[in-house]
Structures
1.
Amino acid sequence: MLRWKEKKQSQLDHLGQCIDRLECKIFEEAESMDKKEYEYIFRERELMEHVYKQNKMIPVWPSILRSFLNCCFHKVSLFSELSHRLSIS
C-alpha cells in the first residue's frame, strides 16, 4: 500500500507540475495565441485540474493505523513497566 501511495503521489506531483506549466504558458503567451490554441490549452488545463482534484485524496489509513498501533503498544509497554516497578517497591 505504501509503494502504491508513493507512486500515485509522484504521479499527482507530476500532474500538478504540468498544470503549473500550462498556467504559465497561458499567462505568458495569452496575447500572442489565437483563440483555438488558447481554448485548447485552457481545456487541457481544466481536464488535468479535474483529474488532480479527483485523485488528490490518496488513502493513507494503513500508515495512520500503523502509527496509532505503535503508539498504543508503546503506552501499554510503558504502563506495564511502570506497574511492574510499582509492584516491586
2.
Amino acid sequence: MSIRTLEDNADEPRLRTELDDGRTVDIEITGSPNNKRRVDVSVDGGQTWIFAVEDRTAGLIDLHGAGQPDEVPNWIEPLLQRIGIEGVEE
C-alpha cells in the first residue's frame, strides 16, 4: 500500500492510498505538530473516521457514514503508523 501526496502542503498534507480490495482512502491532516492534530481517514463511498492526535497517539473522536460497525478497522492503524502516528486508541 503506497501513500501518494495530493496536496504538497508540508503543514497540512492530503494523502491518498488504495486498499487491497481496490477502495480509495483519503487522509487529511490538519493542525500543527505543536498542538492537537486532526486526522480524517475517508473511504471512497463509505465512512470517515476522525481522529485527534496527541503525543503521536490517535484517538477516535467521530465517525461518519454507514455500513460498518462503530469500530476502527484493522487496516487503519498500520496506515496511520506509515504517516508517523505510533498507535490508535479506540
